[in-house]
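Quality-control log, excerpt.
Job 1 of 2 completed; input and output follow.
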Amino acid sequence: MESPLESLPLVMLGPVPIMASVVVTWAIMALLVLGAALLTRRLRLVPLRVQTAAELLVGTVDSQIRDVTGAPPAPYRAFVGTLFLFILMANWASLIPGITPPTATMETPAALAALVFVAIIHFGIRGGGLRGFLRGFARPNPVMIPLNILESLTRSVSMFVRLFGNVMSGVFVIAIVGSLAALLVPIPLMVLDLLTGAVQAYIFAVLSMVFITSAVEKGQPNPRTSEWNM
């Protein structure tokens, strides 16, 4: 198995190297887009099984957003739900022989953490305006501005490290046990890897939602004083 710290190119498009993790990422994105297009092509008032399963998934995402943050789910449903599904499929890609999940390489978790960082800024500005978002860094007083900015950066870094470390370690454990033991021995570890992949996708999505709503709430005006929270 190649080192997760050193990505080797799968093919070369002229001078541009195309990594295996990028190809798998594109394949997952294509499956998500195709699946969404097929599911929403012919919606019914009396849903079939596939539509029922999709509606159950959307309802579960809405419920989790509402329970974890107390915020209305509609503005965040698309981003958080897509983030969860992509990470889940990426983590479970390890069950395909010869495939290293994109989340076990450094590039994909770093890109996902960067997306969350941008989403925090986007939703924060949309919720409280640019002025409110910037003044949120001055809570509880302006002395905390450098620490609050540093906190925003370290949140994204911690999400990257958590996702990358957990998925990469699980892939290595299964690979090592599979090379040393009989064929059937790694199966319980593969089941555990399925559970771990789902848990990591859930944690990443929940943390993203918590950080986003925190940024939105900091930028909201105080209804009692009609002043911006400080």
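Job 2 of 2 completed; input and output follow.
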Amino acid sequence: TGITEEDVIAQVIRGVAGPAIIGDDPLAHEFVWDKLYWTLMPRGQTGYAAHALAAIDLALWDIKGKALGQPIWRLLGGARPRVPVYATFGFGFFDRAELAAAAKLWVSQGFTRLKMTVGGEAMRHRDSRPIIGVIREDAARVAAVRDAVGPDVELFIDANCSLDHYHAGRLCELIRDYNIAFFEEPLTQNDPLQMAQLRRECGIPLACGQNEGLLFRFRDLLLHEAIDYAQPNVAISGGFTQCLKIAGLAAAFNVPITNGGAWPYHNMHLQAGVANGSMVELHYLAVELSKQIYTGLPDCRDGWLTLPDAPGLGFELNRDAVREIAKLPLSQGRGKG
């Protein structure tokens, strides 16, 4: 479950990326990363190419960890043995009452950090409502969740790059009193200049970056003082090799990194490995898929994930389960999270 088309990535790896690195040293991750960059996106384009490169890089670091007998989070720096999580629970298909009930359920299970989506599909022309109507409903939904969980639970919102500057600003005005911990990807294209303007105006911390494929995009966001949290995702933003550089770049600006875009069991290694790491997104749909295809995943307890001592990623792929899921149509278990 991710922000991509899994079949496309598989074809890119089998047809282009994989053959390009056959025979190369799997421990030379910098060499392989640079080679794949020039193979897959020589003119700076990202998209599916960045996702495919990230997938291979994750596998190489798993190999490296197993070869050295160390978990990846220790190879990345070993900053902390456990990481806090926030639960992404608030999906657009819930009505207000369902949203409030879901929030209470997660809090009852020990979670004190929750994230919900806003923005709908209006900007993507898949929602017939006027955008301002979507925004007003979002504000009512945020109010319902805050009333349900009380003032002490941290609440995050995520527009998934779905809004323009004006409507993102209007939403911020409407929810100003609900103590939002951060607003993730409020603007289409993560536009650094507009993000910086929104950050100056809105009074809510901003986060983005999970969909960015190259380092310079984070440079621009940081130089323009556009974000309070950088969100590289190791399954999207070029794997551990590039995300480690993004974390270092953010540290130079005294900006923490956090996880957005799911794949928590991969991203927990980055957040635990570097000193400016912070939270992991426990995206409900992504977690449920991960439980189907991996063995040895750590349990989340009281809002924390404890990092494994086992080498590499610390969990293993169940290849039989993957083969079975791959046979399913999208409507039966292969949809996006």
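Post-run check on job 2. The longest strand covers residues 82-90.
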